[in-house]
Write a structure and sequence with these properties.
With about 230 residues, the chain is of the alpha/beta class. It contains 9 helices and 12 strands. A 5-stranded parallel sheet has the order 2-1-3-4-5, sandwiched between helices. Strands 6-7-8-9 form a 4-stranded antiparallel sheet, covered by helices on one side. Helix 2 packs parallel to helix 3 and helix 6 crosses helix 8. About 25% of the residues are buried. The structure holds calcium ion.
Length: about 230
């Protein structure tokens, strides 16, 4: 089975040249020319590795990375402009596996791709147990790797946003999360929509979980936000 690479790069010349070289090397390549498209393609989980430019229209590479890392550990190599030291540092901080400075020699890129893929196989293979990917609250259980939620034996169907909200609350059990914090973690700091979106999504979650299974899981803390209390 061939290795699938997603190339998120808005400069058409670089994108086309890189694609040609990667395909020549035997990789399967798909391209996105802006951050938003790139992120949704990357979130599909269909790729073995992501090449991510930083200066992108719609959503910056940093923001794509930040959002992607909430749900995926796919290897990411950042494509940075020459001497953009800050970009490299924050890229690595935010969970990029490596970076390469443009313009790059294709041989160097190929070498870095091989290293990143090898590293990913090592950390993925037998090591990560099911336990590590599981967030549990009584009967409620979330598998963060498989993106599934169950209550007892019953599967609960959540949207991506509902899943992220529940995950954030479960990861911070017994900590009261303010609306602002939830908004930032689940919707991103540049979210421009209604601020009551958090309340709306808590309502969705309650109607899918608390109401169905007759257990109060998400508690409202008046004037502050929400919490899943520790059992
Ligand atoms: Ca660019």
């Amino acid at each position: 089975m061939s290795v699938k690479i997603l190339l998120i790069e808005d400069e058409e010349k670089i994108a086309r040249f890189t694609e040609l070289e990667l395909v020549h090397e035997g990789y399967e390549v798909e391209k996105a020319a802006d951050g938003r498209t790139g992120l949704s393609m990357a979130e599909s989980g269909a790729y073995d590795l992501i090449l991510l430019d930083i200066m992108l229209p719609e959503l910056s590479g940093m923001e794509v990375l930040r959002r992607l890392r909430k749900t995926s550990q796919v290897p990411v190599i950042m494509l940075t402009a020459r001497d953009a030291v800050m970009d490299k540092v924050s890229g690595l901080d935010m969970g990029a596996d490596d970076y390469i400075t443009k313009p790059f020699a294709i041989e160097e890129l190929l070498a870095r791709i091989r290293v990143a893929l090898k590293k990913a196989v090592k950390t993925d293979a037998p090591a990560r147990s099911d336990q590590e990917n599981r967030l549990v609250y009584g009967q409620l259980s979330m598998d963060t790797a498989r993106h599934t939620v169950t209550y007892g034996d019953t599967a609960i169907d959540l949207t991506k946003r509902e899943f992220l909200l529940l995950r954030t609350l479960l990861e911070n059990k017994s900590i009261v999360m303010s609306r602002d914090t939830l908004l930032e973690r689940v919707w991103g700091y540049d979210y421009m929509g209604e601020t009551n979106v958090v309340d709306v999504y808590v309502y969705y979650l309650r109607s899918k979980i608390d109401d169905v299974f007759g257990e109060k899981i998400i508690h409202t803390v008046r004037g502050i936000g929400y919490v899943i209390k520790d059992k």
